[in-house]
Every structure is written in structure tokens, then in C-alpha cells.
Amino acid sequence: MSNEEQLSLFDQSALSASTSGNVNTELIPTDAKIPILPGTYDSIVPIAQHCNVCHRCDLGATRTHAVVGRGNPNAPIMIIGEAPGQNEDETGLPFVGKAGQLLEKILASVKLDTQQDVYICNIVKCRPPSNRVPAPNEIAACKPYLLEQIRLVDPKIILLTGATAVKGLTGNKTGITKIRGTWIEWEGRLCMPILHPAYLLRNPSREQGAPKWLMWQDIQVVREKLAEIHA
Ligand code: URA
Asked: Which among 227, 221, 80 has a CA at the least distance from the CA of 159?
């Protein structure tokens, strides 16, 4: 299927109808087997429009908003989380709840600005019911959107927060406590698995070796790498 044919599946009337709650579902692809080819999108805006009318998996049936991304779409660092939670589903923005506030603090601690240095998104764009881990078929259905985001943002560094992000993007099933803090290469891109901020919220100790301490080590390494790339 050509890109044009693929795009025509997302009929414009369906896009505007989606805001009034009267979506003509026949016009929206319901089959995740329909490919979304690399190069389909020329900016993030149509990705967001399509995600908001997407039914490639069942998560589309229960979302309030698709959560596509926030930050600088030309940022040198892309942060990929797992999936939207309740706050994100309500606002349409990733990492705006408690985990997101902690993420902001972590970035600020090494003078990284979320408006300038970072673009934040998730492995899946719609909230899984009860915040469960997204299922493999949901990750697969959503992955073309993520791959298009990575292609368009073209980050120098990708941070993968938590095991679902690592496995969802790279297929690497190594446990996050083992793989965090190590640079891995995916499709020629530099990626750093880090702990998920929600995990830090459940483990508040700052002692040496504790999750917060490990995050502090990792984010400094990322900061140094960015300076090296920009030098
Ligand atoms: N956790 C995530 O992984 N992503 C969000 O957007 C919010 C919380």
C-alpha cells in the first residue's frame, strides 16, 4: 500500500468528527496489520491527529486523548516512557503526573530543559486500562508511530525509561536494573536505558546504590555525553 493510500484511510471527516465524538469508524484503520510505512509523515502534527482517531488496537476504545509527545520536536534527547496514565490520558500530554514531575526535577538537576533539550513520548500512545503494562500486540500496533517520531525528531540520544520501553523499542529483554546506565545501540542510535521515575517514587532512598542514586549517576553520564556531542 502506498503512503497516499495509507493516509487516505484516515479520512479528514473522521478526524474532525472525532472531536465531536461522532467518529465514522469505517474510515479509521482498525487492523494493525495495515502498515504505516517509514516516511508516511512529514511532521508530528499529523501523527497526533491520526493517533487521536486510531483503532489499530483496543486501547483506542477507552482513551480520552491519545498522548503523542511534548517538548522540542527537534531536541537532541528523546525520552521514551511506557504508556500514558490517568493524568496523561486526561491532558493528552506525556509525563505530567507525579512520575512526570520527578522526571522534570531529574532533568533540571543537570540543567536539561524540557522545552529545549528534550522531546518526551511513550511506547504506546493510549492509556492501558488500570495502568497495566501494554500488551505485545498493542506495542506492535503503535510502534510505527513511534518509529516515525524517532525519524522526525532525529535525536542524538534516546533515553528509555524502564523495561517496557527498552523491550518495546529494541526487543532487548535484559532486566532494567542490569541494563540501566549502559549505552546500547539501536538502529545506529545511541540509547541509554534508565530506571522509570515511577519506580523511584516507590523507592525514595537516596543512599548510594539506591534507585535515586543510580538515576543521578545515569543522568550525569547522559549530560556529559550530550556536551561531548555538542563539543
Ligand atoms: N509513565 C509513563 O511511562 N509515561 C507517561 O506518560 C506517564 C507515566
From this structure: 80
Range of the domain at 202: 69-230
Question: Is residue 48 in a domain?
Answer: no
Distance in Å, CA 8 to ligand 1 centroid: 31
Instruction: Tell me if 44 is assigned to some domain.
Output: no
pLDDT at 14 over 50: no
Q: Is residue 127 part of a domain?
A: yes
What's the CATH number where 156 sits?
Answer: 3.40.470.10
Ligand 1 centroid to residue 231 C-alpha, Å: 32
Count of domains for the chain = 1
Determine, yes or no, domain membership for 52.
Answer: no
Cβ neighbours for 205, distance < 8 A, ≥ 6 positions apart = 211, 212, 213
125-140 residue pLDDT tens: 999 999 999 999 999 9
For a mutational test of ligand 1's pocket, the pick from 51, 64, 82, i.e. the residue with the most ligand atoms closer than 8 A to its C-beta, is: 82
Of ligand 1's listed atoms, the one at least distance from the Cα of 88 is: 6
Query: For the sheet containing 157-161, what is the strand order?
Result: 70-71, 118-122, 77-81, 157-161, 189-194, 184-186
Top mutation candidate among 88, 101, 130, 196 for ligand 1, by most atoms within 8 Å of CB: 88
Asked whether the beta carbons of 114 and 71 are under 8 A apart, the reply is: yes
Asked whether the beta carbons of 198 and 99 are under 8 A apart, the reply is yes
Please write the tens of the pLDDT for every residue from 144-186. 999 999 999 999 999 999 999 999 999 999 999 999 999 999 9
